[in-house]
């Protein structure tokens, strides 16, 4: 259903993104990404690494590194996918927010809510 390919949106060193290999209907689950959770107090160590840009909030007291394709979804303020945190299953569950066409890049809003347009860490002015 999904694959990793070169993304035109990502300007980082790796330029990767998640793409649909088939049509995906709105509401359909795209991916379940297992998490490695850690207490927020340990985030200062993650901040010293490349992983800082890939960590997700995981409840009030924890952050998480996502496995599978979870860390490779690129950002958009007009996403075609969204995610829910499944604490019972220890996964981030990604769903189609709109119909997605085969070949289309799957995008999420890094703010967690599809309509949240708050500036992100990589485009804030200092």
From TrEMBL:
Annotated ranges, domain SET: 1-111
Hydrolase is among the record's keywords: no
Gene Ontology MF terms in the entry: histone H3K37 methyltransferase activity
SUPFAM superfamilies: SET domain (SSF82199)
Keyword Methyltransferase belongs to the record: yes
Entry keyword set: Methyltransferase, Transferase
Biological process, per Gene Ontology: methylation
Cross-referenced PROSITE patterns: SET
Record-given protein name: SET domain-containing protein-lysine N-methyltransferase
Organism: Caryophanon latum
């Amino acid at each position: 259903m999904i694959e990793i390919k070169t993304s035109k949106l990502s300007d980082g060193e790796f330029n990767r993104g998640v793409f649909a290999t088939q049509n995906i209907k709105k509401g359909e689950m795209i991916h379940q990404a297992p998490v490695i959770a850690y207490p927020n107090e340990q985030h200062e160590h993650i901040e010293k690494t490349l992983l800082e840009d890939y960590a997700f909030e995981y409840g009030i007291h924890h952050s998480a590194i996502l496995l599978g394709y979870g860390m490779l979804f690129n950002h958009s303020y007009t996403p075609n996918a969204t995610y829910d945190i499944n604490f019972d299953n220890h996964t981030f569950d990604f769903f189609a927010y709109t119909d997605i066409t085969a070949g289309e890049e799957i995008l999420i809003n890094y703010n967690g809510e599809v309509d949240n347009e708050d500036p992100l860490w990589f485009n804030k002015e200092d």
